[in-house]
Amino acid sequence: MSEVNLSKKERAKKKVEELKGFYIHLMVYVFVNIMISVVVTVSLMYNGQGFFQSLSNFGTYSTWIFWGIGIFFHGLKVFSFSPFFNKDWEERQIQKYLDEERRDSEKYQ
Question: What is the pLDDT of residues 27-81, one digit of tens each?
Fold first, then answer.
């Protein structure tokens, strides 16, 4: 197997691992948040609130919202939707620094 094919296989394997990690994170997010919402709703109802009152309580949904922000950014990274820190941006930054070093070395010769 050539070096190029090995490199492609390693990149593909890394991408699959990232995707698998995202889906596991998403499953844990859903199951844990369902459990938290049920516990919060039941405890609020036990403390005298009605069912619909407990559903409208911010505490019932707060972990969904804040953890969801993390899931959103994890998904952006895994699915390569990053307008700022993607591979093209990295390549441009590398090229910029290489050009600066080249100019500096030419200036002192």
Answer: 999 999 999 999 999 998 898 888 888 888 888 889 999 999 999 999 988 887 7
Q: Determine phi and psi for 45, rounding to 5 degrees.
A: -70, -35
Q: Which amino acid is at 104?
A: D
DSSP single-letter state for residue 86? S
In angstroms, rounded to a whole number, what is the distance separating the alpha carbons of residues 83 and 53?
41
64 token code pair = 């969904």
Neighbours of 13 (CB within 10 A): 10
Q: Please state, in angstroms and rounded to a whole number, the distance separating the CA atoms of residues 75 and 107.
A: 45
The whole-angstrom separation of Cα 75 and Cα 59 is 25
Helices (H), the chain: 3-46, 51-55, 58-78, 87-107
Distance of alpha carbon 36 from alpha carbon 64, whole angstroms: 9
**What is the rounded CA–CA span in Å between residue 63 and residue 34?**
10
Cβ atoms within 10 Å, residue 86: 13
> pTM of the predicted model, to two decimals?
0.66
